[in-house]
Amino acid sequence: MIAITGAAGQLGRALIECCTRQGIDFTALTHSQLDITNASTVARFFSECPCECIFNCAAYTQVDAAEENPKQALLVNSLAPWNLARTSIPVIHISTDYVFDGSNISACEVDDAPRPLSVYGLSKRMGETSLLEGGFQGLIVRTAWTYSARPGTKNFLHTMQRLFNERDAIGVVNDQIGTPTLAEDLAQSLIDLYLMGEHLKPMHVLHCTNAGSASWFEFAQAIASLTKTHCTVHPIASSEYPAKAQRPAYSVLSLTAIQELGIRPRPWLDALESVCKKDESNV
Ligand SMILES: NC(=O)c1ccc[n+]([C@@H]2O[C@H](COP(=O)([O-])OP(=O)(O)OC[C@H]3O[C@@H](n4cnc5c(N)ncnc54)[C@H](OP(=O)(O)O)[C@@H]3O)[C@@H](O)[C@H]2O)c1
What we know:
Strand order of the largest sheet: 2-1-3-4-5-10
Number of domains: 1
Low-confidence stretches: none
Structural class: alpha/beta
Bound molecules: NADP nicotinamide-adenine-dinucleotide phosphate
CATH class: Alpha Beta
Largest sheet: 6 strands, parallel
């Protein structure tokens, strides 16, 4: 059996669906069922839970809000992963491309030096470091630009779909490059890694996103074209869309390491097309 923390989030929900489909026994723990920042509750819960692996999908994910609320971001993203790992149950922990500063000119490798630009990125990097230095068993999987078409999830796809209904034209940032990643594809890769026993090795880092790269503008344009909106999307610079947190200009993650393990994520546009087509057939 596996345990899924942050089970009501977009990745948590995708994992639940994946486990259900593949007949993998799981226990799903939402924030209200298990607050991972509470060390004694976490220890007590897992001392009685016969699970073989904890998938930690719980996180403080509000990148801009973290700049004004660093204490909460650090508590959830830096300290809480350690509460989970010290149960001695192997952990598959999710981290982010925002641990990098964006100065790379080619895809970031798993052992490239992180240099976060934001409180969120720093909090996630500190979470990675505590797991890597703690002598634990498990896996840190960095991902990026995650979205899902599932109703009730908050992400770029849903924001664009709302804006397309409200406006005739929108400007979207064209000078940040990353990889849009479908939560359901990521969940499947995480389960594949678990079934291969990657979580049983000493704590190490892998990258997992869909394949390829795009700017937010290109991602928005693809959504616009697939959903046949009348709204026009035009490119703008980050400086024209001021945000509290600084984002990396280029944070594409190299997939070499997981490809060597036999996991080959599909191109991001194929993944986006698959969910937009499904949406269309449900209309
Ligand atoms: N979304 C992205 O674009 C992206 C990109 C790169 C990496 N990631 C990483 O991917 C992972 C999954 O993200 P996601 O997109 O699924 O995020 P999400 O939809 O925001 O889900 C995060 C979940 O964590 C829960 N949570 C927050 N604090 C908690 C606590 N103290 N104890 C237990 N649960 C808590 C939240 O519950 P409440 O809402 O009730 O607080 C929410 O259900 C995270 O590690 C994130 O850093 C995400």
